[in-house]
Write a structure and sequence with these properties.
The complex is a heterodimer.
Chain A lengths: L2 H9 L2 H33 L13 H28 L2 H33 L7 H22 L3 H29 L8 E2 L4 E2 L3 H33 L4 H6 L8 H4 L5
Antiparallel strand pairs in A: 1-2
Helix pairs in contact in A: 2-7, 3-4, 3-5, 3-6, 3-7, 4-5, 4-6, 4-7, 5-6
Chain B lengths: L5 H18 L1 H4 L1 H17 L3 H24 L1 H9 L1 H7 L4 H31 L6 H25 L9 H9 L1 H15 L5 H30 L1
Classes of the chains: A mainly alpha, B mainly alpha.
Chain lengths: 262, 227
Amino acid sequence: MNRFVLWFHRMGSPPTFYAFAERWRPWFLWSALAITAVALYWGLARAPDDYLQGDSFRIIYIHVPSAWMGQFIFLAMAICGFVAIVWRIKIAEIMGIASAPVGAAFTAIALATGSLWGRPTWGTYWVWDARLTSTLVLLFLYFGVIGLYRAIEDRRKAARAAGLLAIIGLVNIPIIQYSVYWWNTLHQPSSIKVTKMSSTIDPSMLWPLLAMAVATKLYYAWSALSRAQLMVLEMESGKDWVRELAGLPGVASPSTDTPREA
Amino acid sequence: MRPGTPSTAALALLRRDLLLLWRQRADALNPLLFALMVATLFPLALGPEAGMLSRVAGGIVWVTVVLANLLSLDALFRGDAEDGSLDQLAVSGQPLALLAGARILAHWLGTGLPLTLVAPLLAYMLGLERAALPVLVAALALGTPLLSLVGACCAALTVAMRRSGILLALLVLPLTVPVLIFGAGAVEAAATGGDPSAALLFLAAGLALALPLAPLGCAAAIRIGTA
């Protein structure tokens, strides 16, 4: 078995996953904070003013990485959902659900910073522009996933149902975005085109933005792993390894030792 | 046709659903009455001025249809989940996606089709341009099956709960945004003298995409809920 597949299989075991998360979590957090500090200092204080927008353009260092993360995390959530439904891996279910609040928060930050930027630039906090509207719909999709997970009592069923909803949402996101674009467009087109490996942003303004994109992903890794750790502990409470972790005697009582679901 | 094949199973389910629909035909009228009432609320709220109403008529009819469809979704799998028939369908050995497709077809025949037929009346009451009425019917004929297909997936996701309530709206409405945009867009284009064919073609493309995919998603959701 190749090393990656082996690692993947080992990750399916809650104690191994817990140990992995415990080991790497601080690295993710501290590197995210360090990169954010440098990138924000450079972006907010050192990068030159925009010749048209002056200082107000600097909000892109928060706004654009957050908007990217909103979509990136939805993709991650749908992939976790797919793995959870096909292979019934408990950790994939947990990681998918642990991602949802982080993605919703990033989407909400993108919306809030976008409307703050819109006030001086477009003259209003909210317009029914294509990107704003499709980002708002994305936020509703996140709320749907979280709401569905909370409403079903059986935790594992709930996680798989939420994962399936994430997959259905993922299929719909391009359609929703396309339809909303067709409906109305005011937002400027993207300045960075990944497919052409080119950008219309000056390099001195660009690199803090890309650094922020890396930092937000590291933060997401920290936040999702922390949430997942708690959920693992909750789901596995009563198992021997959790009791050992909590400093309790290692032998669990028979009533709590039975797995909740076969 | 031999008994026990997937097609006979799907036909049997369709026949049963349609029979139930016919026996409870008073209930089947409820979405229509709901649509009629909501459409009546708009002139009361916006004022009776004909020019303004005729401009928003297409949008009002579409919102009304989307809401009426939403209200009918909760009952789609609820009864079968409660009395255990849904579990029996899941373990019957027949392709569950096909059975889900038959159920969705029955739902459309009971909700989407009557709404499509009654919509011109609502639109006429609101003063929509005469020329846009055929386009409205065409857009609804393409859009209401899409609403049933997408809605059924979400309704199937909620079978594991006791009551889906307002959550179902939270799941369904964001996914119906494209249907609303293209459906209302076609009517708007026709009412203002434009060409509605682009929006209608988009609706048709969406239907072509959802027709094979939605029953599969629906079947997967039922399996999660009944496992």
